[in-house]
Amino acid sequence: MHDKTSLHKILKLMKSHFYSCGIVLKSISAIVNFAFMMLRRDNTLRPPLRITELLQLTHLGIPLEHITWPRVTMTSDQWICIRHCLMGSNLENVTVITVLNPHHTLPQTWKAVADCAQMNPSKPIIAVKAGSTFQIYDLGTRKCLHRCCLTYTIHFWTWVNSTTIVVVSDTSVYHWYLDDHNSHPVKIFCRDSRMKNAQLVHYVSDSKMKWFALSGLIAEDNHVIGITQIFSVDHNLCQNIEAHCVCFTSYQFKGNAQPSCVLIAATRNANMHGKLHVVELGPHLSGNLAYTSHTGSIEFSNEWCRYDFPSSIQVSSKLGLVYIVTKYGVMHLCDMETCTTLCSVNLCTDVIFSTAFNKETEGIIAISRNGQVLSVELKKEQLVKYVWEVSKRLHIAERLSLVLDVDQT
């Protein structure tokens, strides 16, 4: 099997030979020209992304029916946590928790009485929930570090960062600060009445814990509505926006002296129109320009997209790029400064229910319903060329070439 370079040389020699002999071979010439066209198309039009399968969860003994949200959680690119039953007819009632690093695939498994479990995003610590009781364990020592029994129904919970867990009840949103060993969850803000009918799916904060966002989904008239409740600590105010998923990041816009806090939100309405919003948040920082905001379109154009919607957002603040992943496995790569979609690609043919930002590659990791754990990595040199030649966004290509330190040509 010849590689593309060898094939290119062979085709060039064939074409030269036919012409030098003066033979009019229209059909062969057409084939050669078509082959050249396909080579050029392959080299210039393919999205500049490398998609690889890191592992298949079913190969680790995880039953396919248990590869679902929230049985499988990924709080960062370092940890995947799975609550499942052991395979085998005599073991169906035995619940276990499997924890693994997607880059090394050396799982740890042990029996547990739990209805949910999540790994700390940066430490070998696991939070386990059984009913209204939480327990926090050190995986190395198997020692219980924290324990808390709550008196209210828990509708949603997750790690906010390495020291904080959010707990959402019928009426309120609480934070449990684990750096205080004697602490209990404290109320942060009230849950909006419109959120009570929503399936809660995300909770995020900015790095300074000044902004929080609770996102939920509501099924209505054959489509899924996304609603997000934003809370500002400094202003002690909440506001609802239409968004299926959001995230906060710190980013230094062109012309600003300092990085500022930015809200990124993705949504899709009943008419198959998707939107990406990038909004600079306060407080205003000295030396920065006036607050900026941008809006761009996300394409949901074919019949397969009828019930699709944005399900997660990951951001490379270093590169100024936004990864929007939809429920049915489409990824849109967007420029953060303009909200321009640079390219779109199908990651897989199944539902993707969890993603995480890969700090090492500035890409993402995604888990699909069929058990695939996928890595999406930028081909950085090809990215600049693609944006320059295919997307025709010259100013974005210039910015990326400076950030990535690659030539535009």
Automatic annotation (TrEMBL):
It comes from Trichonephila clavata (Joro spider). GO terms for biological process: intracellular protein transport; receptor-mediated endocytosis. GO terms for cellular component: clathrin coat of coated pit; clathrin coat of trans-Golgi network vesicle; clathrin complex. Keywords: Membrane, Transmembrane, Transmembrane helix. The chain crosses the membrane at residues 21-39. This is Clathrin heavy chain. GO terms for molecular function: clathrin light chain binding; structural molecule activity. SUPFAM superfamilies: Clathrin heavy-chain terminal domain (SSF50989).
